[in-house]
Design a protein that fits this description.
CATH topology: Carbamate kinase
Strand order of the largest sheet: 1-2
Low-confidence stretches: none
Structural class: mainly alpha
Order of helices and strands: EHEHHHHH
Largest sheet: 2 strands, parallel
CATH architecture: 3-Layer(aba) Sandwich
Helix content: 55-70%
CATH class: Alpha Beta
């Protein structure tokens, strides 16, 4: 089995997302493949900024930064989805994905703190969205793909912010 890893810049535009689907489709035709992705473009930076603004008590800025990131991700994902006929699957996914994050930012504002554990949770939203969108785009291209949430089976140590996968 091969494992491919694509960073944020590889997912930062609809064109780049489509290029990733082409790479994965070609490689998948040669055998089993696992794909690991980062958040789209500069989403991680935006999520960090939103969390820090929330921790500083600036809820308005936190939500504004988040909304800009959501708009960017939505636009990128929907433009790519339109190219492969996957709009019907991608649109509701992107629109609902970040809703819980608004609630989490509200909690951070109220508590005026964002622990490394909480920040890891905030950042996971960008990565999970990328993986879910990519799986839908691949399916739209005719390349069977299954989104698997690594949080369901990966065990790490408790060094939030720089955890290491635990050995069995």
């Amino acid at each position: 089995m091969k494992i491919f890893k694509f960073g944020g810049s590889s997912l930062g535009s609809s064109e780049r997302l489509l290029w990733v689907t082409e790479c994965v489709s070609r490689a998948r035709s040669k055998g089993p493949l696992a794909v690991v992705v980062s958040a789209m473009g500069d989403t991680t930076d935006a999520l960090i900024a939103a969390a820090h603004s929330a921790a500083a008590g600036d809820g308005l800025r936190a939500h504004t930064v988040l909304d800009v990131a959501i708009d960017r991700c939505t636009s990128t994902a929907l433009l790519a989805a339109a190219q492969v006929g996957a709009e019907a699957r991608v649109a509701p996914l992107v629109r609902t994905h970040f809703a819980p994050l608004h609630e989490l930012l509200n909690a951070i504002v109220l508590l005026r703190e964002c622990s490394p554990q909480t920040l890891d949770l905030v950042l996971s939203y960008g990565e999970v969205l990328s993986a879910r969108v990519l799986a839908e785009l691949l399916d739209g291209r005719g390349t069977p793909a299954l989104f698997v949430d690594s949080r369901d089976w990966t065990v790490t140590d408790e060094t939030f912010g720089s955890a290491v996968v635990a050995a069995e």
